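Review the following:
>
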Amino acid sequence: MTRLKTEAAKESLLRRVRKQRLKYVTVLPSLITLLNGVCGFTAIIFAGRGAFALAGYMVLLAMIADMLDGRLARMSKNTSSFGGQLDSLCDIISFGVAPAFLMLKVLQESKLAGLAQPNVVFENFLQRFVWLAAAAYISCAAIRLARFNVENEEDESAHMSFVGLPTPAAAGVVVSLIIFHQEIILPELSGGDIPAYLGFCESAIMYTLPFLVLGVAVLMVSRIRYPHVLNQYIKGKKPFTHLIRVLLFLLFVIWSRQAALVLIFCGFAAGSFVKWFYYKVIRKREPILPALGRVAEFKSEK
Protein backbone atom coordinates (compact mmCIF):
# COMPACT_ATOMS: atom_id res chain seq x y z
CA MET A 1 0.00 0.00 0.00
CA THR A 2 2.80 2.38 0.89
CA ARG A 3 4.55 1.53 -2.38
CA LEU A 4 1.41 2.39 -4.36
CA LYS A 5 1.14 5.74 -2.57
CA THR A 6 4.79 6.52 -3.33
CA GLU A 7 4.36 5.72 -7.00
CA ALA A 8 1.20 7.83 -7.15
CA ALA A 9 3.04 10.75 -5.54
CA LYS A 10 5.85 10.44 -8.10
CA GLU A 11 3.39 10.41 -10.99
CA SER A 12 1.64 13.47 -9.57
CA LEU A 13 4.97 15.29 -9.28
CA LEU A 14 5.90 14.39 -12.86
CA ARG A 15 2.55 15.71 -14.11
CA ARG A 16 3.11 19.00 -12.31
CA VAL A 17 6.61 19.29 -13.82
CA ARG A 18 5.27 18.59 -17.31
CA LYS A 19 2.58 21.25 -16.92
CA GLN A 20 5.10 23.86 -15.78
CA ARG A 21 5.34 26.73 -18.25
CA LEU A 22 7.68 29.68 -18.59
CA LYS A 23 5.74 32.67 -17.25
CA TYR A 24 8.27 35.49 -16.91
CA VAL A 25 11.24 36.60 -19.03
CA THR A 26 13.51 39.64 -18.97
CA VAL A 27 12.46 41.64 -22.02
CA LEU A 28 15.42 43.94 -22.74
CA PRO A 29 18.28 41.38 -22.40
CA SER A 30 16.22 38.88 -24.43
CA LEU A 31 15.67 41.42 -27.22
CA ILE A 32 19.39 42.19 -27.35
CA THR A 33 20.13 38.44 -27.45
CA LEU A 34 17.71 38.04 -30.36
CA LEU A 35 19.48 40.95 -32.08
CA ASN A 36 22.65 38.88 -31.81
CA GLY A 37 21.00 36.01 -33.69
CA VAL A 38 19.45 38.34 -36.30
CA CYS A 39 22.88 39.89 -36.97
CA GLY A 40 24.33 36.41 -37.50
CA PHE A 41 21.52 35.51 -39.90
CA THR A 42 22.08 38.78 -41.79
CA ALA A 43 25.79 37.98 -42.02
CA ILE A 44 24.92 34.67 -43.70
CA ILE A 45 22.70 36.50 -46.20
CA PHE A 46 25.43 39.04 -47.00
CA ALA A 47 28.00 36.25 -47.40
CA GLY A 48 25.71 34.45 -49.84
CA ARG A 49 25.44 37.63 -51.92
CA GLY A 50 29.21 38.16 -51.99
CA ALA A 51 29.29 41.14 -49.58
CA PHE A 52 31.97 39.53 -47.43
CA ALA A 53 33.13 42.65 -45.59
CA LEU A 54 29.55 43.56 -44.62
CA ALA A 55 29.01 40.00 -43.42
CA GLY A 56 32.10 40.32 -41.21
CA TYR A 57 30.85 43.58 -39.72
CA MET A 58 27.49 41.98 -38.94
CA VAL A 59 29.30 39.31 -36.95
CA LEU A 60 31.13 42.07 -35.07
CA LEU A 61 27.79 43.75 -34.36
CA ALA A 62 26.53 40.43 -33.03
CA MET A 63 29.52 40.41 -30.64
CA ILE A 64 28.50 43.78 -29.24
CA ALA A 65 24.94 42.52 -28.68
CA ASP A 66 26.31 39.35 -27.05
CA MET A 67 28.43 41.44 -24.70
CA LEU A 68 25.55 43.73 -23.72
CA ASP A 69 22.81 41.18 -23.03
CA GLY A 70 24.67 39.23 -20.37
CA ARG A 71 25.96 42.36 -18.67
CA LEU A 72 22.50 43.92 -18.57
CA ALA A 73 21.03 40.73 -17.13
CA ARG A 74 23.70 40.54 -14.40
CA MET A 75 23.45 44.24 -13.56
CA SER A 76 19.67 43.99 -13.17
CA LYS A 77 20.04 40.63 -11.35
CA ASN A 78 17.71 38.99 -13.86
CA THR A 79 19.89 36.14 -15.05
CA SER A 80 17.95 32.97 -15.84
CA SER A 81 18.34 29.60 -17.48
CA PHE A 82 16.10 30.81 -20.30
CA GLY A 83 18.46 33.70 -21.06
CA GLY A 84 21.47 31.40 -21.06
CA GLN A 85 19.89 28.91 -23.43
CA LEU A 86 18.62 31.65 -25.75
CA ASP A 87 22.08 33.23 -25.78
CA SER A 88 23.71 29.95 -26.81
CA LEU A 89 21.20 29.35 -29.60
CA CYS A 90 21.89 32.79 -31.04
CA ASP A 91 25.65 32.38 -30.55
CA ILE A 92 25.77 29.21 -32.63
CA ILE A 93 24.23 31.19 -35.50
CA SER A 94 26.41 34.29 -35.21
CA PHE A 95 29.71 32.77 -34.08
CA GLY A 96 29.39 29.23 -35.41
CA VAL A 97 27.46 29.01 -38.67
CA ALA A 98 28.06 32.54 -39.99
CA PRO A 99 31.92 32.54 -39.82
CA ALA A 100 32.12 29.02 -41.26
CA PHE A 101 29.80 29.87 -44.15
CA LEU A 102 31.66 33.14 -44.73
CA MET A 103 34.96 31.28 -44.98
CA LEU A 104 33.48 28.82 -47.49
CA LYS A 105 32.12 31.57 -49.74
CA VAL A 106 35.34 33.60 -49.64
CA LEU A 107 37.45 30.60 -50.58
CA GLN A 108 35.08 29.68 -53.38
CA GLU A 109 35.68 33.06 -55.02
CA SER A 110 39.38 33.32 -54.27
CA LYS A 111 42.28 32.08 -56.33
CA LEU A 112 42.37 29.02 -54.08
CA ALA A 113 39.33 27.79 -56.00
CA GLY A 114 41.21 28.10 -59.29
CA LEU A 115 44.42 26.63 -57.93
CA ALA A 116 43.38 23.04 -58.62
CA GLN A 117 41.26 23.48 -61.73
CA PRO A 118 43.64 21.50 -64.00
CA ASN A 119 43.56 18.58 -61.53
CA VAL A 120 40.06 17.35 -60.73
CA VAL A 121 41.23 15.01 -57.94
CA PHE A 122 43.14 17.77 -56.14
CA GLU A 123 40.23 20.16 -56.58
CA ASN A 124 37.85 17.69 -54.95
CA PHE A 125 40.35 17.18 -52.12
CA LEU A 126 40.57 20.94 -51.50
CA GLN A 127 36.80 21.35 -51.50
CA ARG A 128 36.37 18.51 -49.05
CA PHE A 129 39.15 19.79 -46.79
CA VAL A 130 37.63 23.30 -46.64
CA TRP A 131 34.22 21.80 -45.93
CA LEU A 132 35.74 19.60 -43.21
CA ALA A 133 37.37 22.65 -41.61
CA ALA A 134 34.03 24.50 -41.59
CA ALA A 135 32.19 21.47 -40.19
CA ALA A 136 34.81 21.00 -37.46
CA TYR A 137 34.53 24.69 -36.55
CA ILE A 138 30.73 24.53 -36.20
CA SER A 139 30.91 21.30 -34.18
CA CYS A 140 33.52 22.69 -31.78
CA ALA A 141 31.55 25.93 -31.38
CA ALA A 142 28.44 23.91 -30.43
CA ILE A 143 30.46 21.81 -27.95
CA ARG A 144 32.03 24.95 -26.47
CA LEU A 145 28.63 26.58 -25.92
CA ALA A 146 27.09 23.44 -24.43
CA ARG A 147 30.04 23.02 -22.05
CA PHE A 148 29.78 26.67 -21.03
CA ASN A 149 26.08 26.25 -20.18
CA VAL A 150 26.86 23.26 -17.97
CA GLU A 151 29.85 24.82 -16.18
CA ASN A 152 28.72 28.45 -16.10
CA GLU A 153 28.15 30.26 -12.80
CA GLU A 154 25.87 33.28 -12.60
CA ASP A 155 28.08 35.07 -10.08
CA GLU A 156 29.91 38.04 -11.66
CA SER A 157 33.12 37.17 -9.77
CA ALA A 158 33.26 33.88 -11.69
CA HIS A 159 33.49 35.70 -15.03
CA MET A 160 37.17 36.64 -14.80
CA SER A 161 38.40 34.06 -17.29
CA PHE A 162 37.13 31.50 -19.79
CA VAL A 163 37.99 27.83 -20.17
CA GLY A 164 38.79 27.53 -23.86
CA LEU A 165 38.70 30.21 -26.52
CA PRO A 166 35.29 31.96 -26.41
CA THR A 167 33.19 31.57 -29.55
CA PRO A 168 33.02 35.35 -30.25
CA ALA A 169 36.83 35.54 -30.19
CA ALA A 170 37.12 32.52 -32.50
CA ALA A 171 34.66 34.11 -34.92
CA GLY A 172 36.62 37.36 -34.64
CA VAL A 173 39.79 35.66 -35.87
CA VAL A 174 37.99 34.50 -39.01
CA VAL A 175 36.04 37.66 -39.84
CA SER A 176 38.89 40.07 -39.04
CA LEU A 177 41.16 38.36 -41.58
CA ILE A 178 38.37 38.37 -44.17
CA ILE A 179 37.62 42.08 -43.57
CA PHE A 180 41.33 42.89 -43.87
CA HIS A 181 41.50 40.87 -47.09
CA GLN A 182 38.41 42.47 -48.61
CA GLU A 183 39.00 46.12 -47.63
CA ILE A 184 42.78 46.48 -47.60
CA ILE A 185 44.34 43.88 -49.90
CA LEU A 186 41.80 43.45 -52.72
CA PRO A 187 41.45 47.20 -53.54
CA GLU A 188 45.23 47.45 -53.81
CA LEU A 189 45.46 44.34 -55.99
CA SER A 190 42.90 45.77 -58.41
CA GLY A 191 45.31 48.62 -59.26
CA GLY A 192 48.01 48.60 -61.89
CA ASP A 193 51.22 48.47 -59.86
CA ILE A 194 50.85 45.68 -57.27
CA PRO A 195 53.44 45.58 -54.45
CA ALA A 196 54.99 42.18 -53.86
CA TYR A 197 54.14 42.11 -50.15
CA LEU A 198 50.41 42.55 -50.88
CA GLY A 199 50.42 39.51 -53.14
CA PHE A 200 52.19 37.55 -50.42
CA CYS A 201 49.67 38.68 -47.76
CA GLU A 202 46.74 37.78 -50.00
CA SER A 203 48.12 34.31 -50.64
CA ALA A 204 49.00 33.78 -46.99
CA ILE A 205 45.50 34.66 -45.80
CA MET A 206 43.69 32.56 -48.39
CA TYR A 207 45.92 29.48 -48.11
CA THR A 208 46.11 29.43 -44.31
CA LEU A 209 42.48 30.36 -43.55
CA PRO A 210 41.19 26.74 -43.40
CA PHE A 211 44.07 25.78 -41.10
CA LEU A 212 43.39 28.79 -38.86
CA VAL A 213 39.75 27.78 -38.67
CA LEU A 214 40.78 24.30 -37.56
CA GLY A 215 43.19 25.83 -35.05
CA VAL A 216 40.62 28.08 -33.37
CA ALA A 217 38.16 25.17 -33.40
CA VAL A 218 40.59 23.12 -31.29
CA LEU A 219 41.24 26.10 -29.00
CA MET A 220 37.50 26.48 -28.35
CA VAL A 221 37.21 22.97 -26.88
CA SER A 222 40.59 23.10 -25.11
CA ARG A 223 41.11 23.74 -21.39
CA ILE A 224 43.39 26.70 -21.92
CA ARG A 225 42.43 29.69 -19.77
CA TYR A 226 41.58 32.92 -21.61
CA PRO A 227 41.16 36.17 -19.68
CA HIS A 228 37.97 38.21 -19.61
CA VAL A 229 39.42 41.43 -21.03
CA LEU A 230 36.74 43.77 -19.69
CA ASN A 231 36.72 42.38 -16.15
CA GLN A 232 40.48 41.93 -15.81
CA TYR A 233 42.01 44.91 -17.63
CA ILE A 234 39.40 47.66 -17.90
CA LYS A 235 36.84 47.32 -15.11
CA GLY A 236 37.71 48.84 -11.73
CA LYS A 237 40.74 50.89 -10.66
CA LYS A 238 43.84 50.41 -12.78
CA PRO A 239 47.31 52.03 -12.93
CA PHE A 240 47.75 55.20 -14.97
CA THR A 241 49.75 53.27 -17.56
CA HIS A 242 46.60 51.33 -18.45
CA LEU A 243 44.96 54.58 -19.56
CA ILE A 244 47.94 55.42 -21.79
CA ARG A 245 47.84 51.97 -23.37
CA VAL A 246 44.12 52.22 -24.04
CA LEU A 247 44.54 55.65 -25.64
CA LEU A 248 47.36 54.41 -27.88
CA PHE A 249 45.28 51.42 -28.83
CA LEU A 250 42.29 53.63 -29.71
CA LEU A 251 44.55 55.75 -31.91
CA PHE A 252 45.67 52.60 -33.70
CA VAL A 253 42.02 51.61 -34.23
CA ILE A 254 41.25 55.03 -35.71
CA TRP A 255 44.30 54.86 -37.96
CA SER A 256 43.45 51.40 -39.39
CA ARG A 257 40.47 49.54 -37.96
CA GLN A 258 41.05 46.56 -40.25
CA ALA A 259 44.61 45.99 -39.04
CA ALA A 260 43.52 46.65 -35.45
CA LEU A 261 40.83 43.95 -35.66
CA VAL A 262 43.37 41.40 -36.89
CA LEU A 263 45.78 42.34 -34.10
CA ILE A 264 43.06 42.18 -31.43
CA PHE A 265 41.54 38.82 -32.26
CA CYS A 266 44.62 36.95 -33.50
CA GLY A 267 46.69 38.28 -30.61
CA PHE A 268 44.03 37.28 -28.08
CA ALA A 269 43.66 33.78 -29.53
CA ALA A 270 47.42 33.20 -29.76
CA GLY A 271 48.44 34.89 -26.50
CA SER A 272 47.03 32.37 -24.02
CA PHE A 273 48.06 29.46 -26.23
CA VAL A 274 51.68 30.66 -26.37
CA LYS A 275 51.69 31.14 -22.57
CA TRP A 276 50.21 27.66 -22.05
CA PHE A 277 52.73 26.11 -24.45
CA TYR A 278 55.62 27.85 -22.70
CA TYR A 279 54.68 26.74 -19.18
CA LYS A 280 53.43 23.26 -20.06
CA VAL A 281 56.03 22.22 -22.64
CA ILE A 282 59.15 24.41 -22.60
CA ARG A 283 59.42 25.01 -18.84
CA LYS A 284 58.93 21.31 -18.14
CA ARG A 285 61.88 20.44 -20.37
CA GLU A 286 64.29 22.99 -18.87
CA PRO A 287 65.14 21.00 -15.70
CA ILE A 288 65.73 17.88 -17.81
CA LEU A 289 68.32 19.47 -20.11
CA PRO A 290 70.95 20.26 -17.41
CA ALA A 291 70.52 16.73 -16.02
CA LEU A 292 71.13 15.25 -19.46
CA GLY A 293 74.22 17.43 -19.79
CA ARG A 294 75.60 16.15 -16.48
CA VAL A 295 74.97 12.55 -17.55
CA ALA A 296 76.84 13.18 -20.82
CA GLU A 297 79.80 14.72 -18.95
CA PHE A 298 79.87 11.75 -16.55
CA LYS A 299 79.98 9.31 -19.46
CA SER A 300 82.72 11.28 -21.21
CA GLU A 301 84.84 11.24 -18.05
CA LYS A 302 84.55 7.47 -17.95
Observations:
- The chain has twelve helices and two strands.
- The chain has one domain: 27-152+161-301.
